Each structure stands twice: as C-alpha cells, then as structure tokens.
C-alpha cells in the first residue's frame, strides 16, 4: 500500500491535535507488546513483535480500518521482501535521501523534524520505523521501473498511431553520461561522508572529460567510473534529473548515495528526433497519465513473484 503525503498529513494533524489538547498518545506501545519476540520470519530475517506493534500504530495513524493486526503483518512481510530485493540489486536510496524526505514531510506539515519525531514516538510508530518505511517507498518504484522499462517497448502499430496523432516526431535531449563515484564504505559513513563530499566537489573542476575519465580516477583513492551510455531526457532518474538539467559545465552537482558521493559527467548532449526518442517521450507521457490510485501492475507482479519464492514463517 502506498502512503500519500496528503493521507498521512491528515492523520498527523489529527494526532498533533489529540496529543496537544489531551496529552494522550493514541497508540503508544505498551510493555506487553513491546517485546522482541519474533512475529514472522521472512527468508531468515525476523520481524519482531515490536515491529508489528509499531506498524499497527502506523496503520491506525493512517486511519486504516478492519483487522489492522492482519494488515500490519502482511504489510511488513511485503515490505521485507521488497527490502531484501532492493538490497540484492543494490538500488536502495541513501540514508541522506531518507533524512531529506523526512525533513520535507515534516516541513510540509509545518513541523520541525524534532516535532515530527515526538509525534511519531507518542503515536507508537517511532522515527526509525517511519524512516525504514520511507526508504522502501522511495527505492521500490526505481527497482520496478528498472526491471520492466526494457520490457515495455511500444508496438509498431502504437508508435504509428501516436506519430499520426502528433503529426510529427517529438524532439528530446539525448545525454551520454558517465558516473563518478567516490566510494564511502557503509561502516565509515558517519566519519568519512563530509570529507569525501568535499573531495568530490573539488574534483569536478579538474575533470578532464569522459575520454580521460579512467586516468582521472587513478589520481584519487577509491574512485570508480561507470559508463551509463546514452540516456533520453524522459528516461532520466528522478534523483538525477534536476542536477543534469541544471548542470553548469560538464559535470553535475554531487549526491550522497548508498555507494558514497556521486556526480555525473555529461560527455555529450544533443537534440534527437528519431523512433527511440519518440518512444521515450510517448512512454513518459503515458506514465504521467496513469491513474496512480490503481497502483502499478508491474509492482504487484514483481511482489507476487517474490512471495512465491520466499520462505515465510508466521509465529
């Protein structure tokens, strides 16, 4: 289930009012529930009773009705399957991405992150539980898109129909990109991130161009280069799109990711108007027109596949 900002905002506002007026915490975890006993095991990873109690509180905060305990259990199982697959493929958003999303959400509710944390704690959800939820919500769509994008090629008939409707082929920008990664080991993120970010920022002015990228990387410790090839503007990942479009020169600004500090080198960019460009534009338009309330069928298909292969033990 995807949680909309609007839905949770209403729930948070209601909780704020309740806490402020009465001092009552509507779903605070009691000692009886807050034990570390195992509720479910998903592929050898435990979901504890504490996790379950927090998710029940979260569902109540979202005004879910019915058997919330059953819903909470299923939601946590699905979330764990997604988290494991995200980790396997290596497509998780970074801790900084999650923290920034949490900050934006708090600000959208006219709260500081500290105030938002207090509300979540009083409601029995907790900040870390909420952030773990955010991380999966942000990472999973990227994984689904990466898996199914190449399988959703338009048929020739659809392409011809769209071209006739538009009367001419659309024009878009094609980028040739390389990814520069200043690696930060997970165990050293707290101590090394700021230093590596400064190194990455300083290196941008010295980047010699894509042809010499590999030699450039040899001048630094633990820097890797990935060739991303050609990417159409409508296919740019949401995280990178504003940085690429706003780039001043041959490199983008830096981002903190699960791998470390990254930026993109723009090797070339040009306007294109061919069949591939047309398909990219048309697919982007179709995605924009989709009814988000119905969910992504590819997401459900992917999740069903993960469920069929999983070992799930309810305690």
TrEMBL record:
Mind telling me which SUPFAM superfamilies this protein's record contains? Triger factor/SurA peptide-binding domain-like
Asked if the record carries the keyword Isomerase, the reply is: yes
A GO term, aspect molecular function = peptidyl-prolyl cis-trans isomerase activity
Matching entries from Gene3D superfamilies are given as: Porin chaperone SurA, peptide-binding domain
Q: Signal: is it a keyword of this entry? A: yes
Keywords from UniProt, A to Z, are: Isomerase, Signal
Q: Which PANTHER family match?
A: CHAPERONE SURA
What protein does this entry describe? Peptidylprolyl isomerase
């Amino acid at each position: 289930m995807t949680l909309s900002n609007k839905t949770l905002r209403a729930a948070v506002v209601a909780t704020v009012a309740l806490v402020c007026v009465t001092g009552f915490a509507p779903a605070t975890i009691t000692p009886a529930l807050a034990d570390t006993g195992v509720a479910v095991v998903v592929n050898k990873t435990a979901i504890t009773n504490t996790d379950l109690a927090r998710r029940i509180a979260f569902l109540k905060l979202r005004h879910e009705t019915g058997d919330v305990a059953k819903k909470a259990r299923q939601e946590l199982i699905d979330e764990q399957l997604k988290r494991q697959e995200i980790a396997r493929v290596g497509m998780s958003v970074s801790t900084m991405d999650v923290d920034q999303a949490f900050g934006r959400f708090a600000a959208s509710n006219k709260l500081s992150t500290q105030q938002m944390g207090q509300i979540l704690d009083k409601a029995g959800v907790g900040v870390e539980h909420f952030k773990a939820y955010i991380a999966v919500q942000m990472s999973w769509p990227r994984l689904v898109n990466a898996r199914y994008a190449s399988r959703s090629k338009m048929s020739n008939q659809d392409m011809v129909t769209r071209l006739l409707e538009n009367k001419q082929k659309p024009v878009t920008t094609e980028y040739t990109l390389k990814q520069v990664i200043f690696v930060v080991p997970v165990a050293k993120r707290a101590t090394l991130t700021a230093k590596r970010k400064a190194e990455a920022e300083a290196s941008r002015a010295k980047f010699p161009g894509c042809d010499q990228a590999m030699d450039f990387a040899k001048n630094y410790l633990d820097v890797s280069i990935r060739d991303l090839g050609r990417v159409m503007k409508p296919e740019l990942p949401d995280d990178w799109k504003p940085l690429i479009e706003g780039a001043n020169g041959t490199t983008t600004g830096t981002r903190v990711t699960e791998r470390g500090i990254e930026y993109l080198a723009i090797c070339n960019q040009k306007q294109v108007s061919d069949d591939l460009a047309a398909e990219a534009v048309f697919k982007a338009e179709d995605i924009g027109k989709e009814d988000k309330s119905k969910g992504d069928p590819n997401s459900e298909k992917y999740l069903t596949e993960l469920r069929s292969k999983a070992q799930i033990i309810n305690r």
